[in-house]
Amino acid sequence: MSTSLPVTPQRPRATPMVSAPRRNAAGQLLKKTGLLRGAGEDISMHDSTASKPQHRSMRSRLTAQSKALEAVKNKAASAAPQKATTIKGRSGTPPDARGPIRSRLPKRTQNADVSVIQTWKTVIQSRYNAQARFLNLDNLSTDPELLSRGIPFNKIRESRELQVIMKVASQLEPVPVTISLAHNGLDGSHIFSSLHRYIPNVVNLSLTGNKVRSSKDMEIFAGPKWVLTKLRELILLDNPIYEMALAQGKIEEYRKEITRKFPSLEILDNVPVPHIRLSIAPTTPRIPLVPEAAKAFPTPMGSNAIATDIQAFVFNFLQRYLAGFDTSRPSLHSAYTPASTFSFSYDSTIPPQSRQRGVLYKMPNQRKLDWSAWHSAGSRNLMKTHGSLQDARDRLFTGADDILVGLGLLPTTKHIVAEGEKFVVDTVQMDLGAGPQLFITIHGEFVEAPGVIDGIRSFDRSLILSPAPDGSYAKQNGWDAMIISDQLNIRSYSSHESWAIGPMSTQAQEIAAVIASGSVHSSHPTRVTGDTSHMVSSASASTSGSTIPANSQSTEQLHPLLADLVITFDSMARNCY
């Protein structure tokens, strides 16, 4: 037997009336929940004596809401006494009876701040050298005075304490110009901001062992582009900025960046900073760049500066050494030790006095001299070798054997020691911890390539001698002293009259004498005008006050200063053609 489910009849759809107004949505919702009846009657305002009861669903809903509200109120009332008991048991005082909550951190009073500042004043004053204007603030975290007062110098208080330190330091008399903050682990930005504010004129600053991380630490927020404009020396060793540049091989870039931040810097990390000096018009009152020439030397030229008790020893040693240097250089091997050093250099510049005296033309053999032999022998003039460190090492001869090789490379010479007025010797006795030693300087002249060129050079030689011990190799070969250091400088010839005993004439006096004489010596060069070869020859006859017409084809006498220019132009013309 089959049963059929009841079919729920469908409600007919109401056709919406376009012209009929729509009911209020709030009213529809209230009516749907039973709070509003059809005639607009509010059920909350009904008469209690009304015989018509409320709908059953409405009564059940209100009952459920009231029961839930009662449960919440009962739970809150039962939990309140228990919570109050717990709080009272912990603190012993009800929350309502207790005062406002205060911080457990100790509050620093005004007296405490004054005590801290006074302690800093004591510490800074004890570390200040007023005579040198040097303030030493190294290792402040281990300062006994700060530790005894309980004033820690750590990262938390770093910025505030640095401000206090620099302000106190700025009140010192005189104000410090050299400050060392080494090994404090300070942040770079705090250091430079404090210095810029209180001691902007610091000259020397050491920040070894701190936390300067980059060049941005040296900038002041909303401040000027340049800070510490008088800073001359800065040390940033053992800082992150230096260690990082060293690890990455960017020391040059690091140095350039720091020098851009401090244009006045001259020494960075104990290394001089090269500067390109430009000619800038001075803002201060003008001072003559070339001072007025001296009219005369205050003291006359004296004799050799050698003590009388060692004068014979020095002269005997030099005579034997120079004779061996001229005739048999291998015989000088025993005069050096395995630790001795020798070097030489040449200076091709013609001395001004030699130019004025016309030495190049009075002595015809001087024109034959050439510097190529000295250059190829290994001159240690670093200005000529472009400052190469490897060349400086290679051209320092060390040890007797190596020195003998270096001496053999030099051109042959002849020192005419019999003409004693052409040499001057000075000696100083000294003791450098290795026993008594003699420091000898000798100035004089020698003939280069005798019999071939016969040109004359001037020289300066510095020797350091040490006594030869008994039984030593030098002593066995008749040397009473050994050469520890030997430096030789060869230069263009200048007259020995420079050290002639008596009053010394200045360069201005010599120029005045030439102008006053009005004559040009016969040894000055002559230039044949009208000749395309521009030949330069030496005149054999002297003229005095002669006047030559402009259109004359005869020889024209030139002053030595002008003759040098003529020779220069002649050589340039020959090279061009």
Summarize the structure.
It is elongated and about 145 Å long.
Structure in words:
The protein is of the alpha/beta class. The chain is 33% helix and 16% strand. It contains 17 helices and 19 strands. The strands form 4 sheets. A 7-stranded mixed sheet has the order 1-2-3-4-5-6-7. Helix 3 (110-126) packs across helix 5 (158-170) and helix 5 (158-170) packs parallel to helix 6 (188-198). The longest helix has 36 residues, at 56-91. Mean pLDDT is 74; it is low at 85-91 and 519-577.
Question: How are the SSEs placed, and which strands pair?
Answer:
Layout: H1 25-32, H2 56-91, H3 110-126, E1 128-129, E2 134-136, H4 144-149, H5 158-170, E3 178-180, H6 188-198, E4 204-206, E5 233-235, H7 240-247, H8 251-261, E6 267-268, E7 271-272, H9 308-327, E8 336-347, H10 352-357, H11 359-362, H12 372-376, H13 389-394, E9 397-398, H14 400-408, E10 413-414, E11 424-431, E12 436-448, E13 455-467, H15 473-476, E14 481-491, H16 507-517, E15 519-520, E16 525-528, E17 536-538, E18 543-544, E19 555-557, H17 560-576
Parallel strand pairs: 2-3, 3-4, 4-5, 5-6, 8-14
Antiparallel strand pairs: 1-2, 6-7, 8-9, 10-12, 11-12, 12-13, 13-14, 15-18, 16-17, 16-19
The unreliable regions are 85-91, 519-577
Head-to-tail CA distance between termini: 142 Å
Q: Please state roughly what percent of the residues sit in beta strands, choosing from under 5%, 5-15%, 15-25%, 25-35%, 35-45% or over 45%.
A: 15-25%
- Tell me about the largest β-sheet: 7 strands, mixed
The spatial strand order of the largest sheet comes to: 1-2-3-4-5-6-7
Mean pLDDT: 74
Q: Rounded to an integer, what's the Rg over CA atoms?
A: 51 Å
Name the structural class. Answer: alpha/beta
Shape estimate: elongated
The helicity comes to 25-40%
